Amino acid sequence: MTWWQDRIVEAGKEPVALCLVAFIATFLLTRLVTRTIRSGRGPFRNNVSSTGLHIHHAVPGLFLLLAGALTSLASYDSTSLNIAGLCVGAGASLVLDEFALILHLRDVYWARQGRASVQAVALAGMVMGLTLLGFTPENVDELTDRNAPVRWATVAILLTSFVCCLICAAKGKYRLVVLAAIVPIVAYVGAVRLARPGSPWYRRYPEGSRKQVRARGRAGGFDRHIAHGLTWFGDLVAGAPSREDAAAESAERAAVLVAPSQEEDDPVRSGHGSRSSS
């Protein structure tokens, strides 16, 4: 195809493109297999040995990641780099599909906590896509510029972006932190907007203040109109959690948005009320 040759191969983006294709294809195939296992249909089974050993697909994913990384480091030709891109894409997909298990140190694949894996895959795929389109992390080449004003301006921009990312994290906007590595202006916007209810920054707002009311209103609107749609699409592609977990999630979201003061007064629950948002 002419466009592939002109826009991808000639531009030196073929390894990244193959990495993205392998990443998406592996995720979709993995979810198809796990959903057939969950429903009891198809030839696949959730095999566990007599010793109770179960090899999660993050294990072969780690080996593929390692193989891809070593191949890319030792590569001197385009074919080897393309193979490395395929290995990295497939391996990263297998590992991130088990991200929730690694995060919680228990099998929550079909629990509501398992949605963290789908979100991690979506964010990683978005970053790969932006990289393929030409967006890259902030350029630090200017740091070696002999022009002192340019060098110090670059340092100031990098430090400002880093501080804004920290503020976004404190405000419960974790997805924005990932995107900010590619599109820095996202961090600046997220840093000046109100915090998510339950986040550390939200607890700084005076009880019953206008900021608290506005923050709950914005979070509720985001959850109803945007987050709900994203969750629905994620469940459609990757499979929905069990009904009990879905009901518990709805109750938890309502408790955070409607009565956040109760969560803040309870030191045990306050650490579990944070919900990420962009």
From TrEMBL:
Q: Where is this region: Disordered?
A: 258-278
User: Is this entry keyworded Iron?
Assistant: no
Q: What are the entry keywords? A: Membrane, Transmembrane, Transmembrane helix
Transmembrane feature ranges = 15-34, 55-76, 82-105, 117-137, 149-169, 176-195
> Is the keyword Transmembrane assigned to this protein?
yes
The protein's name in its UniProt record: Multisubunit Na+/H+ antiporter MnhE subunit
